[in-house]
Amino acid sequence: MIGVDKAKDWVRENAPMFNVLFENKYIGMLYDRFGSLPVAKQKQVIVGGGAAILGILVLHLTYSYVGLWSYHSKTNDSLAMITMLREYQTQEREQSAEMRLLERNSALSGEGNLKSHLNSVAKNAGISPRMIQAEESNDGGSDLQMKRATVKLQRVTILQLKNFMQGVEFGAYSLEVSSIKIKNDDKIRGYQDIELGVVAYLFAGTGEGL
Question: pTM here?
């Protein structure tokens, strides 16, 4: 009991807010009951109580850890799902953009339409119709069609070439310049002879008869 009395004295001096525990009649009854036990039994009760408290703490920490791990796992799963959703949305947007480009080019599927468009671009760039020669060909497929055109420009200036390139790449259709060769004109200084490869992708069989 000496140890218990010392504990009560220490609480009164250092943690007076816990004095209410000793003033509670039920705790007093337990204390009296504990005091009537033999010293050996008191030690067993103290050891058992400490073990019980330690067990409760271990269970609480284990439960908290399991809850934290479960929350962390659910958070990771949610982040993974969000990432997958964003990737799917990005892929859908890219595919939709590609579909729109293919549909935009459908007007070029008719024979000679790509050639006619390139002649119009050259005219808008200030190039004389006598100085442009365009030939087109088709590479068909089951779903997609690739139209190619070879364009030869004679005696054009750098400004005319720039305007022509801008009209091809940023015009009404989605076209790609696949190749370009530039050669200075042998007779007139400041002019060039140009040969370009132009490619258009579109759905096979669309726009026929345009």
Answer: 0.52
81: its two tokens: 């799902």
- 107-110 contacts: CB < 8 A, separation 24 or more? 107/173, 107/207, 107/210, 108/147, 108/173, 108/200, 108/202, 108/207, 109/145, 109/147, 109/202, 109/203, 109/204, 109/205, 109/206, 109/207, 109/208, 109/210, 110/207, 110/208, 110/209, 110/210
CB 151 within 8 Å of CB 200: no
- Tell me the two tokens of residue 190: 């400041």
Q: Would you say how long the chain is, in residues?
A: 210
Q: Name which of 13-22, 116-125, 156-165, 190-199 the model is least confident about.
A: 13-22
What are 94-139's pLDDT values in tens digits? 656 666 777 778 888 888 899 999 999 999 999 999 999 999 888 7
50 neighbors 7 (Cβ within 8 angstroms): no
